[in-house]
Amino acid sequence: MVAEFRRRKIPIDVVVQDWMYWGKYGWNALKFDESTHPDPSLMTTEAHRMGVKVIVSVWSNFGVSTDVVKELRPHLVPGSLNYDPSSPEGRRAYWELVDQRILSRGFDGLWLDASEPEFFKPTGGDRGTYTFYTGLRDSVLKAGRGSRYVNAYPLLHTSGVYEGWKSKYSTRPVVLTRSAYLGQNRTGAIVWSGDIHHDWGVLKAQVQAGINFSFIYPYWTTDTGGFFSGDPADESYREIFLRWLAWSVFCPVMRVHGTSYPKEPWRFGKDEEIVKSLIELRYRFLPYIYTAAWEVTKGTPMMRPLAADFQDEEVLDVDDQYMFGPSLMVSPITFPGGRREVYIPRGKWYDFWTWEEVEGGKSVEVEVPLDRIPLHVRGGSVLPLGRPIEGADLEQDPLELRLYGEGSSSSELYEDEGDGLGYEKGEYQVVPITRSEGELRLSDAIGNLRREHTFRILVGGRVWTELRYVGREIRVEVQ
What we know:
Residues 398-443 form the DUF5110 domain. With 479 residues, the chain is an alpha/beta fold.
């Protein structure tokens, strides 16, 4: 699959191995069935050779017949097949097993699926025949009674993996999980919204969920197109998938996942090029998105309700538009057809696609084709974009600095090595960008990392000038 992405020149950075790899070894055995995965390390090596990282699904509960459950028996919750993460010894034992069997084999991240214990109790007396049953409500954890502490399970579970990872590896912990609890954002884990259906009502609800959740937990994602997805050969499903994908471009994390039908871009027939163009759009925005992710460390969520930024009374009633980073307002299409009403907050705004100026403080009707999403840029903004690339580690120069409207503003462009923990010790570069009347200033770089860039300055949709930045201040007149 990765080779086909590369052959078609469709950008991709990560693939996720779901739970089907256990096979004959049983539920969450943390082993690869040789009949389907004869050489997992070689598989990962080949993916790495093509510039793609691999994440593997692991769970917090285990099949009763697996050898893992035997090793973890002292750390299981009484009456359950879940381990007890409220116990430091339990967290350590779980981490060591996952590290030994998965991460140490060259994989790049973990998908902590079903990280919230489920309460369904099977009929009959053999709990071990139904691995989803946890018994936590009636059991006693190390921390205390399960009914009191069960909501904190994902926090303790994720924290144990995060702490174990940081104690051993110099790479950044990469964890995707289904549930969260207050304080879990300090682990940097990505939370997705669970197994959802595909229809327009669900899509709108996902937009609202993302806005709400991301306001306090920055790294959120959705199963684009729905986990229980439709048939790419069905034109009505292709429409909802493309609208969902266009919205996912402007989510903190963009990913496609689902069951029932395959979702590779080439499965969408004549719309493959639209799928490809939307993925390329995400990659073009990487300089902006990565900077917005850095702003999270200073307390600014990437994805915010309009009421967080604007005082207009009208924004209190807008639940399907949001700010993404400092400059972009995103207004997803969540129903058939390409038209929708967009509220424009007070001030000057610009249509991202046409550069047309829009005066704020009112609602406007917009219409966009399937390869676009309504996007508006705050007046005075400097928007950094890169050229289309097939992987996030590739060079994106020349970078565009798009100047929208007039006035004074300040912003930054952040970058680091993309992995590793050097940024914690100042191994990054911040380029301060300041606009004043008729002038653009790129100030001396901040941080211990030095990157040179060619910047192409765009004003009103046309190239104004091009300059080379080597970490020292540059001033340029613009009109």
